[in-house]
Amino acid sequence: MDPPHQISQDLQWSGRSDCGKVRPNNEDAFLGLRFDASEIHHLGVIGEGPTGHMDFVFAVSDGMGGAKSGEQASRIAVQKIMTLLPRSYLQSAIGLEAGFPDVLEELFAEIHDALAYLGSSDEECSGMETTLSLCWFTPGRMFFGHIGDSRIYYLPAQTGALKQLSQDDTHVAWLLRNGKITERQARAHPRRNLLQKALGAGNQFVTPQVGAVTCEKGDVFLLCTDGLVEGLHDSHLEEFLRSPEFFQAGANPAHRLVEEALARNGRDNITAVVIRVV
């Protein structure tokens, strides 16, 4: 059998972002890129392509701050990805497995430094910060980096239930992970959106959570901001992502998820990116 980095797979993707029913502007952002060491291509909101000769990266971010600095923070994060990750393509081509934590930690650190500098030098940008959840697809593998309370979900095609790969960087999420409160209590907790870690502002600890999973045909990945899960529980997400009709020809899974979340809640900005291995 060929090693994973020589296995070509097709990816199907879709993305959607909405400001919601209450907020006047959208501080979320999402990104889809296909790249190698010399070329970089922006992906449309829906599409399909092979991983054989180029890598893919998908990311979502949720900015915070006064005026429109939160909106600017999330966009700075995705713009930095465009310039920094292609430099690492050659490393992935010869085997990324050992070095991917360093690559992603450097990426997150550079985004943090850029936001912190802008926030300290421009009064209108004071306090700007953002979450960032990122999935980097190479043939046969998905490497991820995460900080904040946006989320990365993984639904294996063969066995197992929907799994949240990322860990929310909040005290309430820590209480839930350690069995000190229930999911119902966590969802209603008044401090559930208070971040302990994010990129920018006065945050000192910016080391991201990083990890990797093997990609197999039929696997589904979801990146989303917290506005999506305010309206949809994990059981709802799994029900949608397991439905064959959800991925039928011409469907836009991310659009469907955002519309469902809007119907059930909609108090926050809502962003979703859905990727399926085919």
Quick one: overall form?
globular
CATH class (first level) name: Alpha Beta
* Mean pLDDT across every amino acid position: 89
Count, helices: 8
- Domain module count: 1
Rounded to the nearest angstrom, the radius of gyration is 18 Å
Extended strand count: 14
Helical percent range?
25-40%
Largest sheet: 8 strands, antiparallel
* Element-by-element helix/strand order: EEEEEHHHEEEEEHHEEEHHHE
The gist of it:
The chain has eight helices and 14 strands. It is an alpha+beta fold and 278 residues long.
Tell me what you see in this structure.
With 278 residues, the protein is an alpha+beta fold. It has one domain: PPM-type phosphatase domain (Phosphatase 2c, domain 1). The protein is 30% helix and 28% strand. The protein is built from eight helices and 14 strands. It has helices at residues 69-84, 89-93, 100-121, 171-177, 183-188, 226-231, 234-242, 253-264, and strands at 10-18, 28-35, 40-42, 46-50, 55-64, 129-130, 132-138, 141-147, 151-155, 163-164, 199-200, 209-214, 220-224, 270-277. The strands form two sheets. Strands 2, 3, 5, 6, 7, 8, 11 and 12 form an eight-stranded antiparallel beta sheet that branches. Helix 1 (69-84) packs antiparallel against helix 3. The chain is globular, with a radius of gyration of 18 Å. The two termini are 19 Å apart. Residues 1-5 have low confidence and may be disordered.
